[in-house]
Amino acid sequence: MQIQHHYRETGLNERHQHLLTFKNLHIDTNQELVVFMPASCHVCKSEGFQALTRVTVSLNDKSIIAALNVTNDGLLAEGEISLSESAAKKMAVQDGDLLSVSHTGPLRSIAHVRAKLYGSVLDQQAYHEIIRDIVDEKYSNIFLSSFVSACSGNNMSIEEICYLTSAMIHAGNRLYWEKGVIADKHCIGGLPGNRTTMIVVPIIASLSIMIPKTSSKAITSPAGTADTMGVMTNVNLSIEEIRKVVEKENGCIAWGGAVKLSPADDLIIRVEKALDIDSEGQMIASILSKKAAAGSTHCVIDIPIGSTAKVRSMDNAVQLALKLKEVSEFLHIKSQIIFSDGSQPVGYGIGPALEARDVLDVLQNKPDAPKDLSEKSIRIATELVHLAWDMPKDAAQEIVTTKLKSGEAFKKFIAICEAQGGFKEPGKARYTKTIEADFTGTIHEINNRKTAQVAKLAGAPDTPEAGVDFRIQLKEKVESGQPLFTIHANSPGELEYAYEYYKNNSQDVIKYLINE
Amino acid sequence: MQIQHHYRETGLNERHQHLLTFKNLHIDTNQELVVFMPASCHVCKSEGFQALTRVTVSLNDKSIIAALNVTNDGLLAEGEISLSESAAKKMAVQDGDLLSVSHTGPLRSIAHVRAKLYGSVLDQQAYHEIIRDIVDEKYSNIFLSSFVSACSGNNMSIEEICYLTSAMIHAGNRLYWEKGVIADKHCIGGLPGNRTTMIVVPIIASLSIMIPKTSSKAITSPAGTADTMGVMTNVNLSIEEIRKVVEKENGCIAWGGAVKLSPADDLIIRVEKALDIDSEGQMIASILSKKAAAGSTHCVIDIPIGSTAKVRSMDNAVQLALKLKEVSEFLHIKSQIIFSDGSQPVGYGIGPALEARDVLDVLQNKPDAPKDLSEKSIRIATELVHLAWDMPKDAAQEIVTTKLKSGEAFKKFIAICEAQGGFKEPGKARYTKTIEADFTGTIHEINNRKTAQVAKLAGAPDTPEAGVDFRIQLKEKVESGQPLFTIHANSPGELEYAYEYYKNNSQDVIKYLINE
Lengths: 516, 516
Description:
Two copies of one chain form a homodimer. Chain A is of the alpha/beta class. Chain A is built from 19 helices and 18 strands. Chain A has helices at 7-14, 42-47, 85-91, 108-117, 124-135, 141-150, 158-170, 197-206, 225-230, 239-249, 264-275, 280-293, 314-330, 352-363, 371-389, 393-405, 408-420, 448-457, 492-509, and strands at 18-22, 34-38, 54-59, 62-71, 80-83, 98-103, 183-187, 211-215, 251-255, 298-305, 334-341, 349-350, 431-436, 441-446, 467-470, 477-478, 483-489, 510-514. The termini of chain A are far apart. At the A-B interface, helix 1, helix 2, strand 4, helix 4 and helix 6 of A face helix 1, helix 2, strand 4, helix 4 and helix 6 of B.
């Protein structure tokens, strides 16, 4: 006697395809790929498709996996199907095209996420499969949320953080360099105006140390380094262009987004922000995967500590530093972690053009250049030289300071800008409004987040000239009537809107002590 | 000297409201509440709203919390806003209405989910806050996913399962009864045609034991008990109507969905299904919260075990049984867990009307009534009487059997139907097709899921008369040409579609051994 089995055939037959007619509803669901089908659809019924089911949608040889959204609103007739803008774009589908849909077999990598939730420690292979599927956009938001949740808190061992990081590196593009020192720097965010990169890079490059720097644009802040650099030159460089610039000038400051180093990061961060879950592991993987993908061998990481900065206590900073150190060792990156004051903005300007002006003033040693920005830049550059050359810090500080004061760093910065496509002067905003102190006293507290908010209301970073020119510092004695800061905007409306917000929150933006 | 603080004012001011004009895009996002705003929107920019941000949308005194979907497709102009169908319905908003939007402060209960992810054990209060917010629809899909993930696997202590269960009970409606025995039964799903409820309830009620049964409708199966009962009488009873029926007849069989016992359950199950995460804790809370909310004091829970049933091994069944026992004790419910054969469908019919016919045949003691269904019903009723009256099982079985065989149970069933709105005969499908064996041999395996799939393709449960009349059993010897089952449908298309699926999967639906 024999047992009948026809798994392969039935496997295929089960996935025998249903054809539905595409109708574009122009629904933008952000990055998530979504397919819309009417509840009346016989395919939904027969295949047991339900809201949130993951469905494979195919047209000719192209196919995507999308989350199903069952519509009951008559937007779609029986036999019709629609896709979110992102999905329709990916498929290059036209109204009337016949799409085939089928159940999507369970993603292998979801089993890893489940295992993680069940308490197992995942291996390198598992993280590679998960990140691969995320980059291939096979994860719907609820899957991403489940993964982020599984990895949140302190649920990841240091090995797992290492595996996640290397998985994120391999899922994106990479820069390769001849052997030798490739310098890099990073600052944990949260501090307005903290634009040391554009001063550190030319100093280091002028010392003939290679520093191919990629930076990010603002997501929630008034400016990212790439936004600020963007008002002075082109930052949208390809991997080849980065190579050319660095071979010529030893350094560059390019937008990382253009070269897709660690693309998984953006997708994960989006859900983390929404969940307001801070995963130390994810943060470390996010930072170091980009450094490693850029080919860095030596990296200084600055952790500003402050009640309104990203890292709020020395304890957290120390924990984070230890793990950053371990993971960078795993990646063969020599790293130096430094702690800095995160209690107030750095420099005067907040917003791309205003920050660019500060950078240029420091590089040109102008008398009224912001000292805190120049000092912090010298400190980071010193640490980097100390790290790269294993040179005593005082000696390192001396040559770094010389490079800046002699104007060589400025020359190098201009040369880098020229190599990236030409230097242009930062613009100026059309409208300004200066806020003066209505008190006499001592500045007691400055809220980084709310200060940044004023700059964003004024139009930064979309309007590069917009922002806030912040002229006071902690512990500074202020006379009534003395200028505190100036709002810059290109429209009266934005100027007014930013000012109104400040008025409503003034005591939260700046706290002061009345002098007796 | 003094430190200036104006938290309350600034708190209010910060939430100072932005007005946007509503434009209905008729986008159905299923249960999730979603708000659509254009990326160009100054509110998005200034408030830092981003995709997935949770936003409070208000119109007059009504307000909801919705997940933000930023659109770039020109569907909305600057100053315009839209809501998903579910959200628009909740707000009863019209085109042109001015909606105000503001940032939603972090949900307190999300901190509990985060704590759970960080490994803490949550207390009763925490679960109450989480479930309250879920029922108030304050959780977007990614929050639900995070909660389900946090509670998945074996991450919940038995105390936590108890807390979750009581939180789910308190978040919904409840039935209250005079002191005394309130009997109930439950069957862990996954078995087609398993309609014991409509036989057990009249038997128990005819013994003057109160059994106010609420049942569910099919989600992914060809029929739920409420669907099957629905072809013979009205199941859409209010709490008051349930009370009336039960006071008159001692029992009822009503649709639980209509009385919103444990409403959190539906919202959680939807995401669990999508994630394909089975949380034992969630399943137990789901089952027992509904029993407790219905006021049950004594409950028999049947766990069918089979490779294509929900519970696949005796090990899993025992683990589940122990926890069900503990949690029901916590809820002061006397429970009896029984294991049964889950290797094949129960009865002949699969689909509302066909199952109803089986039920009526058993109740009327027709010679060709399905024996397995009648025996299983007698077993469950016996356990229930044994539990309720603490009576020896053989004695209990005797009176139970008498009630059924004497026709009293049938009389009681008709009386219950009359009390619920009148009895009607189940209908018959317009088209049928009988599948005959193309082999001579012994039935070796029957796949519950694929058999159910054939019934669903035929139109069940939406077409109550549709389904499958399944005439063979495991280990049965079959002659070539002998009828295996008959497909019932109300349209030739559905009949054909179901038949085609069977043809393509025949060896998966029924496996047999060729006789030597």
